[in-house]
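Q: What would this chain look like folded?
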Amino acid sequence: MKHGGAGMFEELYRDPQRLEEFVHAMSGISLANFETFAEKFDFAPYKTMCDIGGAAGQLSIFVARRHPHMTCRTCDLPAVVPIAQKTIAAHGLSERIRAASVDFFRDPLPKADVITMGMILHDWNLEKKMQLIQAAYDALPSGGAFVAIENLIDDERRSNAFGLMMSLNMLIEFGEAFDFTGRDFDGWCRKIGFRRTEVIPLRGPASAAIAYK
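A: My prediction, written as structure tokens:
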């Protein structure tokens, strides 16, 4: 949950039932991409994953179910944590997935071999994007991976019309927020200190942009 300061979200946080409905609705939009990422990404070298802005914990659930050697942590604002705990328990994965609260602009991110952010980076301006990438870098070990699941715009900015329209929508809705290309992501991550990046196509216009420390 990224927009806790906005009026609409303040209203949601005052109504736990509406908040739970909203969290599951937002998670549902990304389920196919989360499932595809869990299938395509090579988790063999890693043991732990931390999903930042994890909402109901669905990405962690897909990863834990497909990769029994992985233990996961899903992190979000305090009001969202009980929703994630309930969802994780319903899937019988409470022993391998922990839900925790984090303010990712104030708190250090939990240490993990893989740090994921699903539809998080596009919500912010460049300064805050860089702050989040730096926080992920600081929390990863050498060889660790930072993953941003987004509607990445193609580098030529010609073919992913959905990504371009999403970027325009973010700009209109939030003023400074914007979507980005794989080349943008590569440049930002290398500036922070990541050694290389790659892009894994997911479903439709979405991709996983991955940076390796």
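The two ends are 26 Å apart (CA to CA).
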